[in-house]
TrEMBL record, chains A, B:
GO molecular function, one term: DNA binding
Organism: Carboxylicivirga marina
PANTHER family: HTH-TYPE TRANSCRIPTIONAL REGULATOR GALS (PTHR30146:SF109), LACI-RELATED TRANSCRIPTIONAL REPRESSOR (PTHR30146)
InterPro entries: HTH_LacI, Lambda_DNA-bd_dom_sf, Peripla_BP/Lac1_sug-bd_dom, Peripla_BP_I
Gene3D superfamilies registered for this protein in UniProt: 3.40.50.2300, lambda repressor-like DNA-binding domains (1.10.260.40)
SUPFAM superfamilies from the UniProt entry: lambda repressor-like DNA-binding domains, Periplasmic binding protein-like I
Limits of the HTH lacI-type domain: 10-64
UniProt keyword list: DNA-binding, Transcription, Transcription regulation
Entry protein name: LacI family DNA-binding transcriptional regulator
DNA sequence: TTGAAAGCGCTAACAT
DNA sequence: ATGTTAGCGCTTTCAA
């Protein structure tokens, strides 16, 4: 136990006194203001260093009415997609001198609403956001829009909120994945879909349906299961499908995690992969390479999306214009052994 | 493109004018000060709501000399251990009204040093930190210690910095894992160790060595490989070991990721798991359950460690005492098929 | 090139 | 129970 030492922080006033100059000169010198002589700058910086001065960002923010902080609201850090996005966000932010404050919503709309209030109170200069799967109403972003604080959204976005959007074509992702299975020779392709309240998952479902139709395959209702994509949902889906008289011979999983579970469940049910059943997941995780058979996937570029979101956001902050451009990031079909034609 | 609207923020002064009372009364009312009449509080809150007032945390922080922000410095968000820790940190922080600003060091000491400066400038109320594998000198934390700002460290800690420490017994983890393989009948147990500049990995190596010794197994130098645990390192290790006349029949991997790669590499080299080779990794990831054979591991409780770190930190912040207690979190041996006795 | 002074929005000691 | 006032540390007009 050590008592808190009451060493007051060094301020620009301390530096000013030390040099017998005014605080404003010190401030300007430290900020490399053009009108300050090199001599003064050097002296000021030397003393600052000597005294161990560090800018008080709180005071600076208050007086500049700018915090240099970007707020990030994401559903959960646990998913590799978001972890990568966060890395991208972090890196670009830091490289541009922004700090990042982060909140997870855990897919709860209420938490999302709460978090926007926190971000507003913190007076962030901009917001990067991926909505929860359930977010319908986006009124909680109005406060930023009204103040001209830009909000960049990625992946799960709402076009009702102005600001840059970074997305992938989820329809195409599912279409490509489904067609890949069909090209492999699959005749009975099933889809474990996500919640219908999320556009991302609706698009994926549409892509799935259209791929079947374009390839003259019937869409059997029992082959299209919608769920929250929990572990249990995935296991249930496999159980249901494998008890059908006409078992599917191909499965498109709406998420990376459900794909992994489907594959594991099918395997332990004695289904031979990929001979009897091909599987592909929408969303790729590191693990997909390690399982047996390795799991094919459509990769969504998380890192890139996070990176672009902040880049666009900073552009808005700097220009004081809110640009509602849409950036479509390319997806990538990763064919692995779970869907390999022999 | 929308032009930034210049709507000034609502302040307590606006509320004060509206009600013909003083700003301090407003401030007190909003903060539920005991000396303010219920009637006034209600009026103030009603008007605040009406006007869409939101506390300016920047101004509040400056005047209170307290930001309600906790800084977090971690090596990388990509690892599941840190992602979980971050979740724990986030949750406890938010539940206690703290915001969290996060920086990744990417295992770079220089970045770690830079990040401490940022955190200092941001005047965080406390710091949660997991050191890089290479951090030796910890002078960059002195600035916090001197000011009485608590620094809680977890996993990779330095006892040279005062403050709570949340750790696991890495010696025990490796000892337990190694002995588990020995009990299985393994006679030639190898260890892919991490860098010797990190205490965590040194402890693990010691645990490995001692388990061999206590069980009267020789420690052959070629069975103990130290590395940075990159993907390439893991592959190289497998190649080296599998070309030995006396191939190991058990491997203890110093990290979760290296364990997964070792297992995959061994499999594709045609080694039968677990018949010819048992594998266990120190650190568990979701993926360990999904690979074939499922990969045994010693689980390190990331979520719990993050949670405790913040709990202890907040205790220090509130009491204005820096408590250097050490919390040892229990580890868990997860026996899966990669080390299963038949 | 530098200084003086006001102000960012809130809090808190002191007064009433 | 409420008002007055000063101040947190910095930036920024305006003046010199």
């Amino acid at each position: 136990m050590a008592l808190k030492e009451q060493k007051r922080e060094i301020t620009i006033n301390d530096i000013a006194k030390e040099l017998n100059i005014s605080p404003s000169t010190v401030s300007r010198a430290l900020n490399d203001n053009a009108k300050i002589s090199e001599a003064t700058k050097e002296k000021v910086k030397a003393v600052a260093q000597d005294l161990g001065y560090e800018l008080n960002l709180v005071a600076s923010s208050l007086s500049k009415n700018k915090t240099n902080v970007i707020g990030v609201i994401i559903p959960n850090i646990g998913s590799q997609f978001f972890a990568k996005a966060l890395s991208g966000i972090q890196e670009v932010a830091r490289a541009n001198g922004y700090n990042v404050i982060i909140c997870q919503t855990n897919e709860s709309v209420q938490q999302e609403v709460d978090m926007t209030r926190v971000m507003n109170s913190a007076r962030v200069d901009g917001l990067v956001c991926c909505l929860t799967m359930e977010t319908k109403d986006v009124g909680h972003f109005d406060v930023f829009t009204k103040k001209g604080i830009p909000v960049a959204m990625f992946d799960r976005v709402s076009y009702a909120v102005p600001g840059p959007k970074i997305v992938v074509d989820n329809y195409e992702a599912a279409y490509t994945a489904t067609e890949h299975l069909i090209n492999l020779g699959c005749k009975r392709v099933a889809h474990l879909a996500g919640t219908t309240s999320s556009k991302v998952f609706c698009d994926r479902t549409e892509g799935f349906k259209d791929a079947l139709q374009k390839n003259d395959l019937p869409l059997l209702p029992q082959y299209l299961l919608s769920s929250d994509l929990t572990e249990q949902d995935a296991r249930d889906a496999v159980r249901i499908w494998m008890n059908l008289p006409d078992k599917p011979d191909g499965i498109v999983a709406a998420s990376a995690s459900s794909g992994l579970i489907i594959s594991a469940a099918a395997k332990s049910a004695g289904v031979r992969l990929p001979e009897d059943l091909s599987i592909i997941s929408l969303g790729n995780e590191r693990c997909n390479e390690f399982v047996t058979p390795s799991l094919s996937a459509v990769d969504m570029p998380g890192y890139d999306m996070g990176k672009s979101a902040v880049e666009q956001l900073i552009k808005c902050i700097k220009s004081e214009k809110v640009d509602s451009s849409i950036t479509l990031k390319p997806i990538q079909l990763l064919i692995r052994n779970s869907s390999f034609k022999h």
